[in-house]
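=== RUN LOG ===
request id: a7f3
mode: sequence -> structure
chains: 1
length: 230
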Amino acid sequence: GTGPHPAVLMPCGHTAIAKAGEVYQKASISLVRAGLAVFCFDPIGQGERRHRLPDGTPEFNSPTSEHQLMGIAGTPVSLSLARAMIWDGIRALDYLESRKDIRGDRLGCTGVSGGGTMTSYLMALDERVVAAAPACYLTGFRRLLETLGPQDFEQNLFGQITAGLDHSDYVLMRAPRPVLIMAATQDFFDIQGAWNVFREGKRIYGRLGFPERVELVEADTKHDLAIEMC
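=== RESULT ===
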């Protein structure tokens, strides 16, 4: 149809081919079949935005290596890679809002892994994200550091732990707008931590009078955007 349609922004996780990856294509198609427009874009250092040598080969072995080196280069001058990537997402929302065939008052965001990170940031920082569903990321820093350890550069914000900002705060900062935490039982992002984030969110949303607006779905799968989550 001609719309205007509700739309979902889908930031990608840490894969070299980014939006061309099977998981993002399948998820996007599934949302389109449900009547939603989808904007799935390549993050910095991934897909069509990888740094390449004159012969066309990628300059770095992986997106995570590229992110690490870009992040380290910016640190001495207080430039955060997360800030640049968050701005990417905000400008993507700007673009969706500008289209006549998109309902700017009905924008959502979802992503898995690194895309779950960006979804968590964007749902906390941009009020235009009416509904959000971060997948395979939210767990809390205690469980993260006790299990997997520090993540990619943009997932480690300067002074975050010192300031007391934890994963659950990304949920609480957007209360009482709807959040679906999508988690995997066998994920390396600890499932216990995901449930802790959910319980804290449910408690605060309940006090605000909207306990039904935060939920968790747990799929018995590994680190992926599984069909059981949708």
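=== NOTES ===
Helices lie at 22-33, 63-74, 81-98, 114-125, 141-147, 167-172, 191-207.
The first strand starts at residue 5 and ends at 11.
=== END ===
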